[in-house]
Each structure stands twice: as C-alpha cells, then as structure tokens.
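Ticket reopened. Same input as before:
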Amino acid sequence: MSDQSTPLRRFWAEFRENKVAVVALVVMVLMGLLALFASVVSPQNPYDLANLSLMDSRRPPGFVGSGGYTHLLGTDPQGRDLLSAIFYGLRISIQIGLAAGFVSLTIGTFLGILAAYLGGRIETLIMRMVDLQLSFPAILLALVIVAMLGQGKAQLIGALVAAQYAYFARTAYGAAKAERGKDYIEAAVATPLSTRLVMLRHLLPNCTPPLIVVATVQIANSISLEATLSFLGLGLPVTEPSLGMLISNGFPYMMSGRYWISVYPGVALIILIVAINIVGDQVRDQFNPRLRR
Amino acid sequence: MTDPVLSVRDLRTHFFTRAGVVKAVDGVSFDLAAGEILGLVGESGSGKTVTGFSILGLIDAPGRIVEGSVMLNGTELTSLPEAQLRARRGRDISMVFQDPIATLNPMLTIGQQMRLAINAHEKLGRRAAEARAAELLTQVGIPSAEARLRSYPHEFSGGMRQRVAIAIALLHRPSVIVADEPTTALDVSIQAQILYQMRDLAAQTGTALIWISHDLAVVSSLATRLAVMYAGRIVEQGPTATLLRDPRHPYTAGLIASLPATSKPGEPLAQIPGTTPSLLSLPPGCPFAPRCARQTPACTEEPALTIEADRGWRCFHPVGQMHEEPA
Amino acid sequence: MTAFVKIDGVSRVFGPNLTTGEKIAAKLGARVETRSVHAVSDVSLEVRKGETLGLVGESGCGKSTLGRLIAGILPPSSGRVTIDGVPVMTHGVKATTRVQTVFQDPFASLDPRMKVGDTVAEGPITHGLTTRADAASYVAEWFRKVGLDPVWADRYPHQFSGGQRQRIAIARALAMKPDVLICDEPVASLDVSIQAQIINLFLELTRDLNLTTVFISHDLSVVRHVSDRVAVMYLGRIVELGPVAEVFGTPAHPYTDALIGSVPKLVLDGDELVRFETIKGEVPSPLSPPAGCFFHPRCALATPECSRDMPLMRPVAGRAEADTRAVACHHSEQLVPG
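Engineering reply: fixed in the latest deploy. New output:
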C-alpha cells in the first residue's frame, strides 16, 4: 500500500533520472515546436515562389540577401533561406513520420492482437504474411510501392505504412501472445466477457509498453526512410522539399565547397533521429522488467 | 554446547532503493552446531532468504551488509575479499536454491557439472571425480547414478533435479548448507522423500543445515531448532518441540494457531489480523505490534532479547508464561 | 440429495501444438512429440447444492484442468458439465454466468492496468447486474463484504498486498452473483498468516451466500478444513471420492493413504512432533501412463491384476451407493474392510 501515484507519474519520475534522455526529449519537443510553428519562426516562406530570388541562390551562411535579412545558414540552389527551408522540411518530415507511424501502429497492432487472440488459421495467415514481408528490406518495399503509386504525400505515407506495419504486427503479436496466457485474461474470458471487450479493454492496454517503444523507433525510421526516398527523388514534389530533398538538392555542390546546402539539413535530420532514438531507448529500458531496480 | 560451526551476530543487510532504505535483515543472531538443522521460518519479506544470501556473501547492489558478523569455523566471512569468499563457497559452505533449473547449466551433462564443481576446489582425476559424483547421487536417492551422470538437466524431473542440486552442494562435505525453500516447488510426495533423505544425510555427514521455508510444518519435520523471522528480525528461536508446543512470541503462537490442521474442520481459523508490513515504513519498536492482540504502549520500544535456557524471544508480553492459556 | 453441478463423463485431451514445420519434421521421422496428454479422463462427479467439494492431487493430476472444465473456461474434449440441468458451455463458448472462478495467483489474475473497482464492476455491468451509474455503490457493497475499504476501488492492483488482491478477486467472482464458485488454489500463493484470513472469509461467504463450491488445492489440511466431500485425483482420473472426514480418516485408495502420509503434519500433543512417510517413485509421465491402474508401479498392494485391468469407480465396502463413498482400486478392501 506504499505507492499512491499513478503509473504515469512514476514513469516520469524514473525518466527524469536519465539526464541525457531528458535533454533528448527537450530537443525532440523543441524540434517538434519549430516544425509546428515553422511559418512563424522562419524568416521566409520557402514555398512561396514570389519570395525567392535566383540572385540569392547558393549563398554561404551569414549572407545578407535581397530580402534584407541575414541568411544564417546560407541559401540553397533555388535561393531559399536554408534555415527556413529546414524548419519547413522538419515539418514535412515529422508530419509524414508521425502519420506513417500511427497508421502502421494501428494496422499492425490490430492484426497482431487479432492473430494472437484468435489463433488457428487466422494466426497462421496473418503471421506468415508478416514474416514474408519482414524478409524484404523495408527500403526496397517502399521504393517499389512509391514507384507503383506515384509521388505525393498520401502515396508516400502509404508506402511507409506498407513497409513498416509488419514490425508493429510482430511486436503486438509477441506481447499479446504472452499476455493471452495470463490469468487476468482467463478471468475475463471466464466471466464471460465478449471477445471484443477482452481484446480492447484487457489485451490492448497491456500490450502498449512494447508498442510505444517500437513506435518511437519506427517514427524515427519513417523519417529517415522518407528522407532516403526523397533523396532518391521518389519522395515529395520539389516544391515542398523535405529534409531528404534538401540534402539531395545540395549534393551536386558538395565538392565545390558549398557544403552547407547538404550538411545543415543533414545535421537537423541526424539530431532529430538521434533524439527520438535516445528517448525510445530510455522508454524501452524503463519498460524492461529485467533492468528494473 | 560444542563450538558452533557457524555463528551469526547482529547481521544487518540493507537495500538502498529508489523508494528508501529497505532493512531486509535487521539484527539477526544465531549459532549453528555441527550436524544441527536450523529451520528459518518466515513469510515473504521477513528477510529469511536475504539472511541466507548474506551468510554466503551473495548480496548484490543495491543491497549491502551494513553491520554484523558471520563466523564460519572461526573465520569472519563478511570482511573476506570476494576471491577468498569464492574459494570457500562450495567447499566450506554451499547453497541449494528453490529453483534447481536456474542453478544447473542446461548445456552440460550432470557428470560434467559435478566434475567442474569438484575441480573448482580440488584436483581429482576424471575417474575419481566421477566415482565421487556417482556416490553422492546415490546418497541423495538417484537410482542408477552412474548412467545418469551422462544425462542433461532437462532429462530429470523437478524432484530429481533438486536431488542433483543437493548432491552438488554436498560434494565437498561442507560444514554448512543453506537451503532456500528447496522443496516448495515440488509435490508433497517428492518433498517427503527429500526431507527424509536430508535428515539422514545431515546426521551421517555432520553437515549443518539452514533450512529456509515459509511452511512451519515442513521445517518442523526436519529441523532440530527453529528460528521465526518477522520484518527482518528473529522474533523467537528455540528447540523445535519446545517452540511449537509452548510458543512465547505472539506471532509464533498466531502462526501455529492459524494452521488449518490445528483447528476443527469448518470452524473459523484463528487468524492474525492485518498484513505483513512494508519494510519501508515499519512502526517504531516491535514490528509486530500493530497486528498483535497483546500490544501495549510499551511495544513502541524495541523489545530486547529474553533468554531462557536454550531458547529466546523478543517480546514484552510473551505468551504462555505464568501458566496462562495460549492466546 | 440431488446433483446441482453434474460432470458427466468429461475428458480433456491436450494435443501437441505442432507448427507446420514440426508436422513435416515428424513425418520425416524427426523426434517430435506427437503424443497427446489426457489431462482429464472420463471424470463423472456430482456436486450438491450448497456443498463444498474439495479436489486434491499432486501437480499434473488434472485438478486445475477439471476446475477449468467445470468453470467453462476450457471446452471438454468429450462429455459435458451442467449446472441445474443447464450446460455450462455451448459450441465451445461459455454460456452462463452462474459459475465463477477465483484463481491461484492474485498477482496475475487482476488486470494490472485497470483500477480494481472497474475490474469488479466490468462483468456485472456487461451482464446487466448493475448499471454504469450504480456501479460504484454496487462495487462498494462487494468490497465491504470481502473486507475491503470501498475507497480503495480507485486504486491499481500493484498498490495492494497479496491477501488484499485475493479479496478483490473474490469480490470480482461474487459480484457476478454466481451459484457455483470454482476456487483454484486460492490460498497457495499467500503468506501463512494471510491464508487463515482468506479461508475464514471463504467459509463465511460460502455459508452466507449458499454457494456451491469446488475447492481445488494441493494442501490437504486446507481442503480438509473447508470441504464437505473430497475427490482425490491421480493422472487425470478420480481415484477416490467421499465425505472429507472419512476419506482422510480411513482412506480406501492406497494413493490417498500415501498422499496423506507424506504430508508433514504438526502433531502437537503426540510423542513425535511431526510424522510423515514417503511414497516410492515419482508420478509417471502423463504422455505414457502405465497400463492398468495408473498407480500400480508405486503401489504397495499391487498385484498382476493391477497392471492389466484399469479399476473403475465402485462403492467402498459396506456402502450401498457409489455416491456416498467410491474408490477406483482392486484392493481397497485391504484398507477399508467394511
């Protein structure tokens, strides 16, 4: 009868002890806020062609352009302010990462729990399909699907979901299979409660810890996968550059000393992904009963 | 009384956790003579297992022995460096755990594991080592021991695995074996066989046993002396028969009275009210006071040890003295 | 007395759960276990209204499986269970709320992510025993009956001790207003001083609510204390059945006799404080039970007949009917001459 606090509060108390994870969380939130308020914090709207001047293209950091303000990180080949482009690029990257992450989380979790709970032929069918898909590299799968569906946000998200739902399905299946055998599920079945109720109110909430961990990692993966696709020119249209496309845009100029066009978006991408992964690692450690003190 | 082989004095093992200091063992003292079987009885969280682990120096962070002494054959164990402690573990003192599958290596045959255990402390040829191993397996009641040396742990039943663990503990004829609930996971018929054999083995070899259990009936069938633990302390100890027939501490008396075997079928059992206390928030004084029918304001002080002949207890208001009826 | 719960020739077979790969491997001659386990074989039992039937035996004897079959958690492979004439399961799905279960481990049987009040209320709301609006007072009433403070309904299971959790689990089962309660080792994982509290609560509630109970335990002293009649199981079969005092006092089956003998008992007034005897050998693998009587390899009374013919349940010597006292042994007359 010692502990009166909610599980969430205890979780946060433990999370707070890892300073690196707290810094990563702050960075993550900060980048999220920058992305959310990109239009407010950016000196320029990089998507508004009227704002752009080719005169300002490929200028180094610190250059004062025709707009009258300093381009802190320089400009890209289209004359966009790189700092603004990164903020807007972050927005797109995070948007796509989150959207793809949540859709694959939903689909994957549903399939995984269904397979674990119902068993039998449905289990075999779903899990063999998942296994088959997991044996292909995600990037290959995404490439093929984007090539088939064509360019655009929805298509890109679709490709990412198709490439990633299997990870969630596997995780949800593993967790649900372990929970399925526990007495509290048996107690719910014995009451009797309907299958739908047992799955939604008992099985699902108890499968969330590993799913949250996979979700953080997979959101980071979606972001880098999207960056890869955009870098290869299969992502979003050139008018709405994500971080991957910004890197790709600067790539031809890398060797001519104009490093900033590729490097700064790259750094932003790395910081974001590392921050998400550190937070994900800490969450995973806290959920791992073997590492608990 | 002859010189004790093991003497534990004022042992305190505390765990420094996130939530606070858990005083798992808080001032435990007892002596163990050669060939004696001490039953260490207590409920979960009473500190009986931690006491056993502390004696062998097996306490890991965040736990630590903060005070007290453990003397084995005249050597102080608590101040011994890990390397020297390891040299004694398995040779002078060994342990049997509740779950034998955790202590046996699934990849090695029983014979290989027993040879390794022998060679850890003395050089013995393969043939001689196997002969010793087979002899011990026979002693603990494993039929066709020589053939079973080539079996893997998974080929044994739970009861047989526990016998193997006991045989390994006996390999070097240690002075003391600490057995932590070794029969709890086993069926009653197997448990009876093992208890029976342990009693014989202790008598034959002169090995002293500390038998840790939550089951009063099990330990009392085996032990010559009993020590009852509550909230990290030994609240009462004495010869088994005396202690069971005429308990002094209200907790011991309550435990005995609450056993279904001691009351009429269908009648309510004499129950101890309340729950076992959290070691993080113990009341001052006697830890049993909040659940005790005999508590008075005096109980907010820590009761001192009362010694009478060959027994002792920690209580201001002991049961059964001055010829009153046990509560 | 008429039967209230009727268990009619119930069996449960667990086949090996083989994957496709294992099936192929087995076909090709690999050593894959393809035998099935008869966890419960052809058990017929009757439980009378308001009585407590104890079910004892060692691990793997099928007592828990039998409990789950009666509770409608597992569908039987053959045979059927009825309560007051109504089947517990139809088409492999539990069809009644009249039987509820209390599980062994209260740390596992409560959903760790649900407030305990919601856990207790969930079933009654689903089955219309209370409404969502009245749930709080309904739960409070049951909390009081099992000796818990109703304000604790908002807490999570981890905030309770083992004994308190078991009270919550009992409240959950009883809040469904069952006629029959299956208790599967309800005190086995509790501390000794707490066991007595839960046993007392159980005795009080079964009497007050006139519950019919099946009490499963490996602890003979607990079963003896709470039961009216007792059934002894060995390797999936019932070997002896009868009033608890008679079965434990004068066992008619050598296994019952040996089981009672191997339990360490406190005999506080005898010469010897504690007495126990041992049964030789171990329980055989349920994958390949011996021919004839399953107990004969360990039995002191075994004759060639025992390794040939499976003994059937029959009235114990001197009894007119099998339902007063029955035993499955060829030689029970040597133990109870009648």
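The two ends of chain C are 24 Å apart (CA to CA). The longest strand of chain C covers residues 3-14. Please confirm and we'll close it.
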